[in-house]
Amino acid sequence: MREYRAKGPAARPPTHPGAILREDVLPALRLSVTGAAQKLGVSRQALHAILAETASVTPEMAARLGKLCGNGAGLWLRLQQARDLWRVEQEMAGELRKIPTLHA
């Protein structure tokens, strides 16, 4: 499979994994927040923070979500990593412009 790179930075942040969970996954699995939290073995508040996009998906939570959904932890971690990296690149844009790009 060939990988294609975007030509420039995305204008908007990548979707938070909590939004995907809230809008697509839980409805498809016919799970409430309480039901999903019970199956994941976490508190309803911990899951709600992710769904509300106020908390990040940790490696532990990614393992739980990957098992519940059957799609593996890596997917959830990559979604979170893409969002985190986008945010940091936006915050550090001025500083990063000052760093030269060296070629070997």
Please tell me what the overall shape is.
elongated
Total helix count?
6
Percent of residues in beta strands?
A: under 5%
Broad structural category = mainly alpha
| SSE series | HHHHHH
Largest sheet: none
pLDDT averaged over residues = 94
Describe what you observe in this structure:
With 104 residues, the protein is mainly alpha-helical. It has helices at 17-29, 33-40, 44-51, 59-69, 73-91, 93-97. The longest helix is centred in the last third of the chain and has 19 residues, at 73-91. The protein is elongated.
Q: What is the secondary structure topology, with strand pairs?
A:
Layout: H1 17-29, H2 33-40, H3 44-51, H4 59-69, H5 73-91, H6 93-97
Helix pairs in contact: 2-3, 4-5
Give a quick precis of the structure.
The protein has 104 residues and is mainly α. The protein contains 6 helices and no strands.
Labels describing this entry:
elongated, mainly alpha, single chain, 6 helices, 104 residues
